Amino acid sequence: MPILQAENLSKVYGQGETAVTALDAANLSVDAREFVAVMGPSGCGKSTLLQLLGGLDRPSSGRVLIDGQALGDLSDDQLTKLRRRQIGFVFQSFNLIPMLDATENAALPITLDGAPLAEGQAKATRWLEQVGLGHRLRNRPDQLSGGQQQRVAIARALIAEPKLVLADEPTGNLDSHSSDEIAALLRQVASEWGRAVVMVTHERSFAQRTSRQIVLSDGQVVEDIDERGAGRG
C-alpha cells in the first residue's frame, strides 16, 4: 500500500465568477523510499497540493490518504495528532524557535505530544547526530548557518518516526553548496531511512536529484516521470 495517495484532489477558492481553481482533480501515490519533486510555474498549485497532502487545508473535492487513513474522515483533533505523528514538515524558512537550542527544537514534535523531556532530548540528539550536527547540539538558531538550521529542521521532521516527509522549497534560502548537501540528505531520508519524501521546488537541478518528478500546470498533473525517464500512470 502506498504511504501517500491523492485521489481526484481539487481545491477551489471563492465562489461564482470570482472562484479560482488552485488544484484540479490531481491524482498521485507515493511509496516508501520514494523522493518526489513537485515542480511547475508560480501559481500552478504546488503549495496548495502540499498543504492538502499535509492536512493543513481541506480539499473542495477528492481525498488524501496517509498509510490508508483518509484525512477527511478525521476530526480536527485526530488530524492534529496524525500530522504530529505520521508527517514530518520541512519549510523554506526553517521555522525554528530562536530561544531554543538545536536539541530542544528538534525534540518539539514529541515533547508537545507528551513525551518526557529526557526522552525527547535523547531522540533529538540521535537524529541530530544522524544529520551531521552532533557537534552543534546546544547551539541556538542564530549560532547556526542556514544549512545547519535546515538540518535541525530535518531532524525535527524525523523525530516522531513519520512515514511521510513534506518539504516546501527546503533550499530556497540556501547557497548552492548548502542546497546540494540538503538535497543529498533528503535523498538519504528516503533511500536509507525508508521515508516517503515529497518536496516542492522550483530548482530543476535540485529536482534532478530526486527519484521522481511531478510537474503541475494550471492545477493539473501534466507529467509524472521517474529517474529512468519512465512515465507513471
What does this structure look like?
With 233 residues, this protein is an alpha/beta fold. The chain has a single domain (4-226), classed as Rossmann fold, CATH 3.40.50. The protein has 7 helices and 10 strands. The protein has helices at residues 46-53, 76-86, 102-111, 117-130, 146-158, 176-191, 204-207; strands at 4-13, 20-30, 35-39, 61-66, 69-70, 87-91, 164-168, 196-200, 212-217, 220-226. The strands form 2 sheets. The chain has a 6-stranded mixed β-sheet with strand order 6-7-8-3-9-10. It has a 4-stranded antiparallel β-sheet with strand order 2-1-4-5, with helices on one face. Helix 6 links the parallel strand 7 (164-168) and strand 8 (196-200). Helix 3 crosses helix 4 (117-130), helix 3 runs parallel beside helix 5 and helix 5 runs parallel beside helix 6. The two termini are 16 Å apart. The relative contact order is 0.19.
Short account of what is shown:
With 233 residues, the protein is an alpha/beta fold. The protein has helices at residues 46-53, 76-86, 102-111, 117-130, 146-158, 176-191, 204-207, and strands at 4-13, 20-30, 35-39, 61-66, 69-70, 87-91, 164-168, 196-200, 212-217, 220-226.
Number of domains: 1
**Quaternary structure type:** single chain
Mean pLDDT level:
92
What level of helicity do the residues show?
A: 25-40%
Element-level helix/strand string: EEEHEEHEHHHEHEHEE
Low-confidence stretches: none
Q: Helix tally?
A: 7
Identify the CATH architecture: 3-Layer(aba) Sandwich
